[in-house]
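Cross-posting from the modeling subforum.

Setting up a comparison between two proteins and wanted a second pair of eyes on the formatting. Protein 1 (sequence, then structure tokens):
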Amino acid sequence: MTIAAHDKDAYLTELETEILETGRDGSHFFAVTADTILYAEGGGQPCDRGTLGGSAVLDVQQVDGVIRHMLDGPVDLGPTRMELDWERRYDHMQQHTGQHLLTAVAADVFGWKTTAFHLGERVSDIELDTPDLGANELRRLEEAVNSEIPAGRTIRARRVSRDQYNGLAVRTRGLPDGHTGDIRLVEIEGVDLNTCGGTHLRSTAELGSLCLLDTERLRGGTRIFFITGGRVRTRMAEHEARTARLRQALDASNDQLIDEAERREAQLRSLSKKLRSVMNELAGLEAARLASLSQRLIAAHWEDRDMPFLQTVARNLVVEAPRTVALLTAGADDDGVFLIATGSNAGLEVSELGRAIAEILGGRGGGHGSIFQGKATRLDRREEALGLLETV
């Protein structure tokens, strides 16, 4: 096989071919065919999927120049039928074609060169050699790209010799190392001529629209995240469903959602601050209660408290009762926290002891001096831990 069927016609969805070789690659079966409509991963584009002889094609990779179809089960040598997962393929064609158009406009209109491309499952991205891209520039780029889409510019793939290639104005990030033979070019009529082995649409009109979603600085350049084709409609539907839930949850119209969310966030911050103040006051009272017991060894457990509460109790307790050694715990038996605290006159350093207590409580933690704290999964063994403390 020199030129695959998908290279000749990216819109083929079925193919009668022949299985020439089978084998195992790790945990998967694989098959090599006389021809294929399934694109092997490469050039920033994921592989196609489909079926071969009734087995699901899980991956398609080129290994030492041979295309291997990774399968979920064995197949027999000889004539067979191959079918393509068209929905996945068409989505890839839209995203890859959109990338070509985006790259061309970014370079020709704005002077920004593309240095990398990645086609993701939900969002794709390109990297541009500009260190910063503001919101206004992003919108201008998006408008420039979308102005080319409805023109319905024809998209064609062709192969040229090295001599022909050298005489053409081709946009490229370079040929693969060791490349020999003809060079495949993809052309968007009047806009772009690019080296590429991927699958593409027949016309820019099939993109529908292209949306630039976000940017991030990366390696001295800027990464732009984008979607095009059917992904635009899918994302819009997701946003509408999410917005509908927010309207119901916040009891607000679309225009009021942000203000209402910010108002509730401020209210929660205020309530959280008040709650923490109350909890600190309660922790102080608990510390005073424990100190009043006048015991050297103190143990206390709260089911509905957290580590900050234990820390506040401990800080107050060791001040009021400097001879105290305390084992404080909180939470469920299988998902809790613990803290060991010693007063300044207790004469006990807790680092080694804390590790032993942590092992008993099925957890781990850290500390030195007068405090050791951590998480625990066996708080039901508190009495055993307390027994160890009684021996020191």
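Protein 2 (same layout):
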Amino acid sequence: MEVIKKAKELAEEIVKTPEYKMMNTSQEAVANDEEGSALLQDMELLQQEYMKSAQEGESEEELKMLEDILQSKHEELMGYEPTAHMIKSKATFDRLIKLINNEITSGITGCAADDCAGCSGCN
């Protein structure tokens, strides 16, 4: 199918972007950084604990305490240059992907992604 071929071409172009390259490089750097990897693992475990606690109906006090711990861990991640760089480069790449998705959606619906007020495809 031609559309699948075009999707593969788009993927090939995306991996050539500076946003993708920066994100990939920063992820590799953190993967090879013991402290950065440990920080990310701690954050993931805390997030899982929070989700489990929320699903199990823990008290507001317990959830607030976990939120505070998560916030503190996030600040620690952002205070460590390799993980901060990785998080920022991932956010930049995510913005690029969002722009690409908006263009695809706009092409399908005929609706300009930045002005959907009168668009029947979005409303």
